[in-house]
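hi! just following up on the protien thing from before. the input was this:
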Amino acid sequence: MKHFAATVIVLAASLSWPSAEQEKPVPKDSMRLSISGCARGRVFTVDRNPEHELGSTVLEYGTKARLEGPKKLLEEIKARERSMVEITGLIKLSDTQQGGIGLAGGRVRIAPATPMGRGVGHDPGPQPPVIDVESWRLLNASCPSR
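and the predicted 3d structure came back as:
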């Protein structure tokens, strides 16, 4: 009976103790997403997940995003550059909205042109979305060679 009581106490303490694997709260201007694709360094290209049905994604297929996060985590992803991975992380809501007007069912977008020139106030154009990586998993597919 003593062993049972000790086990219950340890179990209760472990359930109430915050673990390191609990998800961080999502800021109001961001969202958590899980998305599949291929990484090359810190550049992530969104692609279709071969293990799931086709569905809508927050980022269009082929979109390139910049990965941010703990150095160890990014090195683990970089070590699997030739394999498709699914990353989970936070992205700003403003990075998920596309500019311009969608035509032909959303496949074509018309957006204002960015100014060309080297003068003061030169706009380098839209910046790629940034994903703050929290975790990743290896998918059963290889990345297409580019």
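Helices lie at 2-16, 71-78, 93-96.
The chain is about 20% helix and 35% strand.
cheers
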